[in-house]
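Exam revision sheet. Question 4 asks you to relate a sequence to its structure. Input first:
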Amino acid sequence: MSLETIAAPVATRRLHLIGNAHIDPVWLWRWTEGMQEVKATFRSALDRMREYPDFKFCASSAAFYEFVEQNDPAMFDEIRERVAEGRWEIVGGWWVEPDCNMPSGESFARHALYAQRYFQQRFGRIATVGYNPDAFGHAGTLPQILRKSGLERYMFMRPQPHEKELASPLFWWESPDGSGVLAFRIMYEYCAGPSDIEEHVRRCAAHLDRHGALACFYGVGNHGGGPTRANLDQIARLSRDASLPALTLDTPEGFFDAIERERRAHPLVTGELQHHAKGCYAATARVKRWNRDAEAALAVAERLATVAQLAVGRRYPIDLEGAWKDVLFGQFHDILAGTAIASAYDDARDAIGEAKIIAARAANHAAQAIAWRIDIPLEEDTRPLVVFNPHPWPTRSIVEVEQGGSREDRAILDESGASVPFQHVRSEAITHRRRRISFVADLPPLGYRTYRVADRAVAATATDLSVNGLAMANPYLRVEIDEHTGGIARLLLCDGNVDLLRATAAIGIVIRDPSDTWGHTLTALDDVAGTFHRRRVRVLERGPVRAVVRAETEWRRSRLVQDYAVYADLPFVDVTATVEWREPHSALKLRFPCALDRAEATFEAPYGHTVRVADGSEVPGQRWIDVSGIARSGERAGLSILDRTTYSFDARGADLGLTVLRNPLVAHHDPLPADDMHEFTDEGRHTLRYRVLPHRGDWRDARTVRAAIELNEPALAHFETFHAGPLPQRASFVEVESASVIGAVVKRAEDGDDIVVRCYESSGRDADALIRIAPLGREIRARFRPHEIKTLAVPRDPSMPVREVDLLERPC
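Answer key, structure tokens:
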């Protein structure tokens, strides 16, 4: 259907009453209580169906149905009967109702893949209506993901009218690639009281003056419950009230079907649907770090497991789907948003930790299986080291490994015997028996390279890394650390000396933040209480591979230590920050004020990016943000900040801000309680990694997208022994060759033995990609529209054609 249809008259004004029970499986309670509430709610809905033949009900979240299937099979069979009857509608098509800004693009794809397959297998159908009534905002890239998951309609409630004005509650929502879904913003509430709902129905009905049909949601929610007898009896009485429009007990799919039959024109809305609860993108930092780490670990594990299956015949692990489901459940909007009770995060830590160890086990087994088949001849006084690149493009990767022994006169040799610059860095163990080595490895696409650690002296290799006082420089950049503040005083692009900063950057800034856990009253985090001041700034390391300046700063009872590292031949500043945070009702920001005119601020979104007005508002983002404009030299230049933990940012003109921590009370909804014995979300020690990537041109020229992925998914290094084998000492298995197409997924198909490769166009421009799968002897050429996500199913038999499939792995 086209995004606009020809208007036609409507004979009857009709209010479609949608029976539902919004259930938070975790919020002010733990998942065990949430599971019981799912069962109680579903039991109640089934009982109402026996009592009221016209009653219809809808429920989302495949995880809920799995709860019931595993715990009460008889009730599950009843639900299946009602679904077949058409009175119980499955909506959502995702594993849970997640936060709709912070999960990665691939996480959203997996929500749909596992949920829709579950629905198809158990009920013989998939959901067609996307359904996230309580999510706090919605990324602008979601319509394409929805459409490619079989979800052509979408229901949500937040942001509400006072937070974002829309021309109509019904509209076509379009993502940057041109994909659109028919969307409906739920009016007033997604739930209603257990008894009197007349006022709610009349408020919704009042909006029918401009519409032929609208939906009104009812049913006790949040802690579940669903429609009550009192609700249904009152609806029966109200349906006889001549002052009200026609009332129909319906489902979301029935409502949308009626809307499309009207053939009315609906306005077009492009981009993201924001904002509600801006503070939640920084609250409870630890769960956000766990989520990011687990997403990255699973992506890497799948790629390496696929390569190990193709290259050496290792069986693909069967437990990765369960690990993904742990992560997806942890993305429920009150968990990942950081707004649940403290004990809920013990559960989230354990579940996401299970996912991470499953991923680590799969990646390690795959890497060792491959390394075990490499032909590595014996060479005395050396130890082989195999370094894996988990990305389908070549990388220059930082490698750090530890081994026993006290010798310092070692060398790193590549597979040809050439010496590679390295240096000893601080070991994790405080003992002379362990030493840590750092070097930079040039790695082939989704493959490996074999190095040797040699117990012999080799002449030092000269590098272009210099340290002068607190200034560090390489051929790409020069960074000067301010001895008075511990921040970055100057950041210059070396050839041409373009200075990107207009003021000192990366200083810890303390922001007053009296708002609740959600940040309901927040627009921006800009009420400065103070800045961290210097305790000590010193050169910590200087060697052929890297130089490090450590800045120790403090503010009241809190401490911030930042290690700024510059590598000999890498174009960024690598920063490790350790925070001891003791400031209640405060936020910690790091700011990067750039000297750029006509600046444009860009933020990563799920499988894409979003350009926003740089007005200082607090906004969500993912692994990178960028500001690009015209430098003082007249050149176009910019600064990208890449991070491993943060989801909350701001941009004011050419000034970028990272919100590192927020410290409201745990699960606190306004007003502020008088009791002072409550727990705060982010008290204690935190460690974060971020990179400062200065560049000419814009973020596309800097390959910021790939650089951010590489930070989050680093190379894997594995010590090996000497043995014969069929594999060479350097190999590439999968490559996606393109300036802007990102190879995000390489995995085994859910059904059969095909290899699934998922890519997305990252720059907003038409692009071509050449995909090589060496073990299959395949070369695949693919054309991408701007922002397009494309999934390919590649048969192992080279005589069989490659097929494009959707996110559910169905033929397009």
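Marking note for examiners. The two ends are 17 Å apart (CA to CA).
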